[in-house]
Design a protein that fits this description.
6-stranded mixed sheet, 13 helices, binds zinc ion, alpha+beta, 4-stranded antiparallel sheet, elongated
């Protein structure tokens, strides 16, 4: 643990350097920044003592693979993180510039300070704490397009199957129960999205001449989108899967504090909070294309479209869920409006059977590093990497850890990393490498 504390200042500096790079893969204008970010990760891993470090790509964003070969008889651990980040959103809503890491009250603010450049920092800290020579093989895989749904990941896995093969996979891209209690994430929801377009007219019409007789597409779209939920806020699409969440207490005050629900705004859906977050489907309208208000005239709008995003409960099939959503949209538009649904991204949900020797070693490392028992949690978000990797390496044990906490605000403005959590997460990972190495039976 002292060794992790010793390397933390340098790791913190390196994390800040990474945060200053605007590696937003979703923004075509900043793809050069993603390349720069990959180069920076290569430099850090090489300096940390990895001998075999390379940038790879299969037509998508540059990813980085670094290897430290396993001593004879020892298992190999793959450490995953991603170096791309979400777009920063509205700069005026940030309390400090998004790409200038800034410390306030023990937290480091900036886009990617937590999601997921802190994952890279954790792996660096664990490796440096072992002075570049841990008792296990270590392969680091740092993806560059996770926030865009990992479109070329399966090609990367196929092209580098031998290089990435490992006994244990640590995915440091998830949340913790609190800043004092770690989580082991054991289930993730999947994702499916689509764009729905409705058309009612061949061209716009004067609303004074035809309003009240001919329907406008935006009103149709709004009614169609409203049909996706019942009055309580439960998803109202037929044929979706529901699982069962861990029985942990998630009080309403905590929900209110973590989400910043405005005064008077209530939660939606029925069932416990963990059930709704981790084990039920959710549907969100994430964008609409229509006439903007400053261009609005008294016209019946002929067509309008929306992007609809769905989270799929563990155990459900994301493709089938997308088909169910498509059916619902095609059949629910009022007044005979024409509906076209264009399918988008699909990522499968995932459930981990977190029992056995590797998980015992991991829980012991958590206990020692955090001084608290880890909580098995689900997560509402999706990490396409996990299902893809589990499929490619079915015998590997997967540990989903993370450096986030409930106040992190990943994907939102004012994202931040709790610096104490970084230390505890790095310590747990360093201990995990040590303990997997000291018990040769563990990974077999
Ligand atoms: Zn992430």
């Amino acid at each position: 643990m002292q060794r992790v504390r010793d390397v933390l200042p340098s790791v913190r500096r390196d994390l800040e350097g990474l945060v200053r790079i605007q590696s937003v893969w979703a923004d075509p204008a900043r793809r050069g920044e993603v390349q720069r970010s990959a180069d920076a990760v290569v430099k850090l891993l090489s300096e940390a003592g990895f001998k075999d470090v390379q940038i790879v790509s299969e037509g998508g964003a540059p990813a980085v693979i670094a290897r430290h070969p396993a001593p004879p008889g020892a298992p190999t651990v793959l450490l995953y993180a991603h170096h791309d980040v979400q777009p920063e959103g509205d700069h005026t809503q940030w309390n400090s510039p998004p790409f200038e890491p800034t410390e306030r009250d023990g937290r480091l603010y900036g886009r990617g300070t937590a999601d997921d450049k802190a994952g890279i920092a954790t792996h660096l800290a664990a490796f440096r704490a072992h002075r570049g020579n841990p008792p296990v093989g270590v392969t680091v895989f740092v993806e560059g397009e996770e926030e865009s749904g990992s479109p070329s990941l399966s090609r990367l896995l196929a092209a580098h199957r031998e290089t990435l093969a490992s006994d244990v996979i640590v995915i440091a891209d998830s949340d913790n129960w609190s800043t004092d209690v770690p989580s082991l994430t054991v289930s993730l929801r999947g994702l499916a999205d689509c764009v729905v377009e409705v058309a009612t007219l061949d061209h716009g019409l004067h609303s004074g001449l035809w309003g009240g007789v001919a329907p406008d597409a935006l009103t149709v779209l709004v009614r169609l989108l409203a049909s996706l939920h019942d009055d309580e806020g439960n998803v109202a699409v037929a044929g979706l899967h529901e699982a069962a969440a861990a029985d942990v207490d998630y009080p309403p005050e905590r929900v209110r504090a973590e989400t910043g629900l405005l005064d008077g705004v209530r939660e939606i859906g029925s069932g416990s909070v963990p059930q709704r977050l981790w084990a039920k489907p959710a549907i969100t309208v994430i964008g609409i294309d229509t006439t903007p208000i400053d261009k609005a005239s008294n016209t019946l709008i002929p067509r309008a479209r929306a992007k609809v995003s769905m989270r799929v409960a563990p155990g459900g099939d994301a493709e089938k869920h997308l088909a169910a959503l498509t059916r619902h949209l095609e059949q629910s538009a009022p007044w005979g409006a024409q509906v076209t649904v264009t399918p988008g991204d699909v990522g499968q949900p995932y459930t981990i059977d977190a029992t056995g020797a590797v998980y015992d070693v991991a829980r012991a490392a958590f206990r020692q590093a955090w001084g608290a028992e880890p909580v098995d949690t689900g997560i509402g978000g999706s990490i396409p990497f996990i299902a893809a990797f589990a499929e490619a390496f079915p015998s590997a044990k997967i540990l989903v850890t993370g450096v986030e906490d409930p106040a992190t605000q990943a994907h939102s403005v004012n994202e931040s990393l709790h610096l104490g959590v970084l230390e505890r997460a790095a310590t747990a990972e360093a201990l995990l490498l040590a303990n997997l190495g000291s018990d040769g039976k563990v990974a077999t």
